[in-house]
Automatic annotation (TrEMBL):
UniProt name for this protein: Zinc-binding dehydrogenase
Name of a matching Pfam family: ADH_N
Keyword terms of this UniProt record: NADP
Transmembrane parts of this sequence: none
Amino acid sequence: MKAIHYFENGGPEVMHYGELPDPVLEDDCVLIAVEWISIEGGDLLNRLVTPPAHTPFVPGYQAAGKVLAVGPRVTRVAVGESVVGFNWCGSHADLFAVPEHFAYAIPEGMDVKQAAALPIAFGTAYDALFTYGDLREGETVLVQGGAGGVGLAAIQLAAQAGAKVIATASDAARLERLVPYGLDHGIAYRSESIAERVDALTGGEGVDIVVDMAGGKGVDALMASLRRHGRYMVVGAATGEVPQFGFFDVINKALAIKGVTFGREMHTPRAHALLAEIFARAAKGELAMPIDREFALSEGVAAHTHVANAHPFGRVMMHP
Ligand SMILES: NC(=O)c1ccc[n+]([C@@H]2O[C@H](COP(=O)([O-])OP(=O)(O)OC[C@H]3O[C@@H](n4cnc5c(N)ncnc54)[C@H](OP(=O)(O)O)[C@@H]3O)[C@@H](O)[C@H]2O)c1
């Protein structure tokens, strides 16, 4: 197969493109002929900080295409079906093997490229807001990293559930583009104080829930923006910096800090039902993931560089 691969952590330049042996099809797995690869925020974080489990390491969590073959213990998925696949690595290739429990059927007529971008972003956002964040109608949510994949999903889901949505992005032009997706108030995190703006927007009350995709130094401002008994949902560290929480900051405001790790629950019947509902809502036009740019798989270095440096709006996709 043709694949992006690397041998050591680092920037996009550590990635190579070339011929590798095809994936071995385990008994409980399905083999996908990849049509569209969604570059996830975690693909970049892994390349930077997670030592490769084996080398050459083919990165990538998520890709969609037609099922080419199934192992003998597969019962639910058939050859020829269109699915989105998830796995801990391997999506940056023209063949992607995933356990059957990580394959999600794409509804008839749905655009495969759009479907390829949905599961991780919307599943993660849903869990942060509702499954573990307990967001209720009328509450106020602050989304740190609103113009990224998980952020765009969180804005749409929160707004459609009747929450007031505040989100951050690097500049005002990006915030303006979030308004049609449900944004009520935007904060340009490079030029404005998040805590001061939230204070003004909430009449000094603070927000009910923070969903943090960025980590890094922004954590203190997000903690300061929460009301007493607020919930801080830890999703990711797109800044590449893993922060620490102030022990007494948590005590003083009686905050709840909760981690979200959707990937570790994507095999469950609950996650399958949730993603079927997300696909159905996307098919009706209620939910969408904007596609910023498309690259060929052979241009993987340029594609990752674009995601890292160009502040894409939504997802960047690759095709073999
Ligand atoms: N826990 C889980 O289950 C789970 C699931 C999915 C993803 N994640 C993690 O969540 C993170 C986001 O994933 P993603 O797919 O949404 O990534 P993405 O599409 O690349 O978006 C990253 C976002 O982070 C924002 N950002 C970067 N630096 C920032 C800063 N200093 N202050 C505020 N915002 C900043 C960017 O905003 P601008 O471009 O406007 O600067 C961008 O919107 C990644 O670290 C990923 O590993 C975790």
